[in-house]
User: What shape does this take?
Amino acid sequence: MLSASTHTLTKTDSNPLTFQELILRLQTFWAERGCVLQQPYDVEVGAGTMAPETFLRVLGPQPYKVAYVQPSRRPADGRYGENPNRLYKHMQLQVILKPPPENVQQVYLESLGAMGIDLRQHDIKFEEDNWESPTLGAWGIGWQVMLDGLEITQFTYFQQCGGVDLYPISVELTYGLERITAFLQDKDSIYDIVWAHDPESGRATTYGDVRLADEQQFSVYNFEMADVDKAWKHFELCETECRALLDKYAALTKEKNVDGFGAEKKRFPILAAYDLCLKCSHLFNILDARGAISVTERVGVIARVRALAVGIAKAFVGQQRAETPADSEEEPADEKKPRVKREKMSPVGS
Amino acid sequence: MPDFLLEIGCEEIPARMIDAASQELEKRVHELLQRERLAAAGTISRFDTPRRLAVLASGVPASQPDVTEQITGPAVNVAFKDGQPTPAAHAFAKKAGVDVSRLERATTPKGEYLSAKVTKKGRTAREILSELLPKEIGSIYWPKNMYWRKPNERFVRPVRWLVAMLDGEVIPLEFDGVKAGSTSRGHRLAGATAVEISKPSVYADSLRKAKVLDAGEREQQIRKALDAVTRTISGARWREDKSLLDTVINLTEFPSVILGSFDPEFLELPDEVLVTVMRDHQKYFAVEDTKGKLLPHFLAVLNTDGDPQGIIRHGHERVLRARFNDARFFWRTDQKHPLRERTEGLKHVTFQKDLGSYHEKALRVQRLCSWLAEMIRQSGMAIRPGVIHKAAYLAKADLTTELVKEFTELQGIVGGLYARVQQLDLDVPESTRLAIADVIYDQYKPESTEDSVPRSIEGAVLSIADKADSIAGMFALGLVPTGSKDPFALRRQANGIVKIIAEYKLPVPLGQLFLDAREAYHGSEAEKKFSGKIDFGNVLRDFFRERLEFYLREVLGFKYDVANAVLAAGCDDVVDAAARAEAVTKVRPSADFESISVAFKRIKNILRQAEQAGKQVTANIDSAALQEAAEKELASQIPHTANKVEALRQGRDYELALVEISKLRPAVDRFFDKVMVMVEDKRIRANRLALLQTLLKEFSTIADFSEIVTEGKDTSRN
Assistant: This one.
C-alpha cells in the first residue's frame, strides 16, 4: 500500500526522475493533499524554515497547509563548486502541515512512493534528530529520515518559534532535493545530476550547467570579497529599521482605545519587519563566512537577530488575534499568561 | 487468573531512550499491581521496539481480594439505653452495613464497645488498571519530550495506538486522546498494518508474524547475520562494538545485515577517520582482518527483511563513498594550512562565552603545563618539557580544520594525526615530532572511567592541564555542577585528572594544581567575569573529594568506609590517598586495628560531647596532672609511637605505620578500663581530654579510624 506509484527504482533504472520532475511530483503530491503551493520566498534565507510561510504561519491558531521549494543560502557552506556534495545554495522542498494529520508519517512515506521509490525494496529509518535555530528562537522535535543510509528528509514537530510556544503544532517536512535526485539518478556528484531533459532534442541539462557558476562566484564573494564594513552597515541599517517598526507597533498596541485601532493594527507592516530581520540573518552569515565576527561578538549578534525574531513573532501573534477573535476558543486555557518565554532554548540534539 | 498486556504504540522513539523507558514502564506496572493488591502470580516481562513499549504480566488476579476488618463503634453504655439501641447504635450499624441485632461487643481497657465485622469488596483489575495506567504512562521519564496535540499532553513522541488487555478483554482506557483496543501494528514496511491481538499470551507470536521482534531476538538475529555475511570474506571479522550494537538493535524492528564494500583507495585515510565515518555517521560495523587491519568492507544493519536485488547495498555504498570522498577532501584541504599556521585562527573559536577563545585557553594551558612539568621534574621523574610546551600550543589548532568541523568527535585525534605528517617546526627532530603528535592525539584521554590514560607522561600533563583549566575557569565563574546538571561534563573531566595522577603516580597535589590553574587566568578578560561569591578553594576541594571517593570505591574497589577514613585524613594528594587506602585495607582485618577503630570512635564521641557541654580541654598534656597508672602509661607511649609513625609516614610506609598505631591497643584498652574521663575535678578532666585529643590528632594523619565500620562491636565493650 505504500508504493503509491508503480514506478520502481532499481540500479538499472533507465529513466529516473530529473531534478525538476522530482519537484513537480512532490508538489503534485502535496497539492493533492490540500497544500497551498507557494513559490520560493524572494529574500535570502538560510533554510525553508525562515521563509514567512513557515516562520509566521506556524504561529497562532489558524490551520494551514503549504508546500514550496526554497533555495537556501548558507555562505559558509560554499566550496567553490569543487566539492561534489556541498553547496552554498541548495534547494529544499518545505511542507508545513498545521495541524498534522494523525497518520502524518504514513502520508510522508507515501510521498516517497510518489518519487518512484518502492519502499518495500528499501531500508527506511527514523533516527532522532531535533532541530534548533538559536537565531530564530525556534526548535522542534523529530527525526532525520534515512533511506538506505542517506538522510533524505528532516521531519520536525515544531514546538516553539520566535520564542512562542506553538498551538496547534505544525509538522515541518524538509526534503533535500539535490541529494534525493542524486540518489534517484545514482550520481556521485550533485553537479552531474540531470536537472531537465529536452524532450525534442533529448539533450540533458545538468545541475552544473544551471548552478556551477553560482557556486563559484558566490564562494569567492562570501569568502574573499564581501565588503565587511559595508555588510556591517547593512546589518545595522536593517536592524535599526526593523527595531523602529517593532517599537511603533508596540506604541500602537498601547493606544488600544483609540478609534480605528483594530484597522491600524491590522495594516501594520509586521511582514516588512520580518523581511528586515531575514536580511540581518543573511548578512550575519556573510560576515561569519568572511571570518569577520569575533568570539565576543558572535553570541551577541545572534542574540540581536533573535531579539528581532522574537519581537516579530510576538507582534504577529497579537496582530492575528486582533484579526480573528473568534478563533480564540481554540486556544488552551493558559492563554492569559504571557506566551513569550525568555531564552528557554533546549540544547541541540539532546 | 487472566494475563495482562499493555502496549504503547508510538512514532519512532529515540534509540538511546528505549531501554531505560522500557525498564521503567515494567517497574511501574509491577509496582502498581503490588500496590493495588493485584500482584501477578506469574512473570512480568517487557517487549520493546522503536515503535512500542509493552509490558506483559501473567496471572493477574481478576480483582482485589475482599478485605474483612473489625471496626469499633461507640461505647456500649452510649449505644444502648435501657437495653434499647440509641441513634448512635443505629448509625454505627448503618456504617458497618449490618443489622443492629448483629452488632458485636468488644472489651477494651477503656470499657465495653460495639464492634462489627465489615467486608470490603475488592475492585476489579479492569477497573483499577483502567483508572491508574494512564497516569503511569504519563509519568515515564524522558530526557526530552514533546507535545503534538495539547500542550499539557507530553510524551517522547506522538502516541498513536494503545493495546490494553486482560486476557481477551480490552481494558477501557485513554491516553492523550488515544483509546486502548486490541489492535497492534506490524513492521512499517514489511509487516501487516493492523495486527489483532487475541490475548496477551500470543502477543509476541502475533508480532513476529508481522515482522516485529523483541530486543533480545533482534540482538541474536543481528549477531548471527553479522557473522554470516562476514564469513563470505575469508579471514575477515567484524569489529565488535557494544554501543553501536545497542543502537542498531533499537533502530530496528526486524533487522537484517548487508555487506558492502568501498574502494580500497580510501584505506589511505587513517583508521580513526574511516571508522568514525562508518560508526558514528552511518552506524556501520567495520570489517578487519585477523591482525585488526581494516578491510574495504562494511556491515549495515537494515530495518527490513532483506535486500535480494542489492538495491539497498548499492545505496549504502554510494552514501559511504560520498562520506569518504568528503573526508578525503577535508584531509587534503586541511594540509594546505598546517597546524602551526592555525593557532591564530583559534582567536575566532569560542571556548566558553565568558572564558574567551581557544587561543587564550591554549596559552593558559601552555603556562600551566610548564609549571606542572617543573613540579614533576623536580621530584625526579623524567619528563620532556619541550615536547609538552609545543604540544600544548598546537593542541587545539585542529578545531579550525575542516575534518574536525565535520567530525567533532575526532578533535585531538585529528590534531595528532596531522602533527604526525606535518612539519611542525624547522628544528624539531622526527622523534620529537612523533612524541608531540602522540601528546596531542591523547589530550582528551581518558574520556571515561574505562578509557585508558595518555600513553606518555607528557600527554598525561597536557590532559591534566587542559581539564584543570576548564574546571578552574568554570568554578571561578560559579558554574559548579549540581545534581544532574553538569553541562560541561566537569565531573568526567575531574575523574580523568584523578585517574591520570593515580596511574602515573604524579606528585601533583590537587590544591596546588588548582591554585596554578586559577593563577593562569590572572589578568585575563575572563577574570573580570569571575564570581566573587564562590569560595574557590573549598568548593573545589569538596568537589574533588567526591571524585576521589568515586575513584577509590568504583575504580580501585576500596570499601566505602576505608575511602571515607582515608579522605578524612586528607584528599589533596591522589597517589597518597590511594596508598593509604591500600594500607588501611591490609591491616583492617587485624583484631588490634579493629579495636583501635572502636576506641577512636569513642574518643571522638567523648571529645564532641565535652565540646558541646563547654568542657575545657588543656592545650598540652600536663604530666603532673596524670593520676592513674593507665593514663600515665598511655601518655608515655604516645610520643614514642608518634615518632615512629611519623618516620614511617614520611617514608610512605603506611602499612607499618598502621601496625605501629595498632600496638597502642593494650594501653588504650587499659585506659578506658581503668580511667574515667569526665570526672568532677576540672583540671584532671581537662588533662584527660587533652590526652585523648593528642592521641586523635597524632594518629589520624593516615586515616580517620573512627570512620571504619566495625560491625556493631563498638557497643559491646565498655
User: Anything to note?
Assistant: Residues 130 and 204 of chain A are 38 Å apart (CA to CA). Residues 1-12, 325-350 of chain A have pLDDT under 50 and may be disordered.
